Amino acid sequence: GVVISNLLKETGLVTLDSGFMNTATTTSQITYIDGDEGILRYRGYPIDQLAAGSSFLEVAYLLIYGELPDASALEQFTTRVTRHRLLHEDFKSFFTAFPANGHPMAILQSGIAGLATYYQHTLDPKDPEQLELATVLLLAKVPTMIAYIAKRALGLPLLYPDSSRGYVEDFLRLTFHLPYQDKSVDPVLTKALDMLLILHADHEQNCSTSTVRMVGSSHANIYASIAAGVGALSGPLHGGANEAVLSMLDAIKAGGGDASDFMRRVKDKEDGVRLMGFGHRVYKNYDPRAAIVKDAAHEVLTQLGSSDELLDIAMGLEDIALHDDYFIERKLYPNVDFYTGLIYKAMGFPTQMFTPLFAMGRLPGWIAQYREMIADPTTKIGRPRQVYTGEGERDFVALDQR
Ligand code: ACO
């Protein structure tokens, strides 16, 4: 017979909540979401106000330290981050050690874990100075790593960061291989990418963030914990969705651009096909980030002078979905990733780089959540229980008697 009573015997109470639909794993002061109303706030500030008025590093500071920096605090923070953007020379060979067509998320995950080998004096999460330095090193080096991964895929040499430039501007220069003196990083791109990074910067206990906390709850160092978060983010139901949206739009375009046939397949659940970039565990209303990205997609594409058939297909899909009972009944609306890929594509990023860009944006959130978890004296190692549904006790049978 099936044995399910061990947990009940031990505790008198069993909660089985697959996917954590109703289980809070922590208290947190970082991000507030009201999924029914479509509200998202970082440390109390509405996401639309931050997207319109602040910069990514300012938001990183807010998430990590809890308050908006004044001008001098922001300048000091920016200086500390930008001066650490170089990677150790030995580390560069790391990027050529993988097949050039290997997925950037796999390389990024290993690279972040590997930072622990270069910065061994920053591994103790219980030492505030070490954790502070690790925070700065991660914010500084992860964009350089992402740029190098992009360059390596193209076989281009790796440029050195230029600390006289802005964080996002220089990331674009490194990625797109603009020479050192070149001042031509398009400010439209810099501003749009900065804003997209802000929108991705935190989203409370999503799959990757919960992973970071879970791994960190064993007091694993912050690099190991965030590398695990990168692994979680790579899945197509999470951060990989932005890449999946583009593949989906490309396939619809290649099939003649007929959105209605694709939507029929989605509604019939044919081969499990889903409308990627739609639906969210928490938002049962329009994702507030999606509304901002949709406007930005129009703006960026117009400013870059690139008309995009894929944007038209995307808007066609959204239009069908917003008026279709299947989507209305299930409260499925566009999420942040429905339109982001179109902007990244217009900027010139290859599709495989979309999810690493999500990781670059989510980094301050992961750091802030790891730090909050470590600082909380009530944190225990994460150790869920299970409801066992396997065999009851039975006697071992020797190999020659099976
Ligand atoms: N297309 C078609 N149907 C969908 C979709 C979709 N994108 N999303 C959910 N549904 C349907 C499900 O089939 C299910 O239908 P049923 O009641 O007939 O069985 C119902 O809506 C509920 O879906 P669940 O999968 O139970 O919802 P859950 O909260 O577990 O999943 C998720 C949320 C994973 C985001 C889901 O909506 C999805 O797969 N979306 C597509 C992938 C995506 O865009 N992911 C990005 C998420 S946001 C982020 O990470 C930034």
UniProtKB/TrEMBL annotation:
Pathway: Carbohydrate metabolism; tricarboxylic acid cycle; isocitrate from oxaloacetate: step 1/2. One of its GO terms (molecular function) is citrate synthase activity. Transmembrane segments: none annotated. It catalyses: oxaloacetate + acetyl-CoA + H2O = citrate + CoA + H(+). It comes from the Bacteria. The keyword ATP-binding does not apply. The keyword ATP-binding does not apply. Gene3D superfamilies: 2.20.28.60, Citrate Synthase, domain 1, Cytochrome P450-Terp, domain 2. Keywords: Acyltransferase, Transferase, Tricarboxylic acid cycle. Belongs to the citrate synthase family. This is Citrate synthase. It comes from Georgenia faecalis.
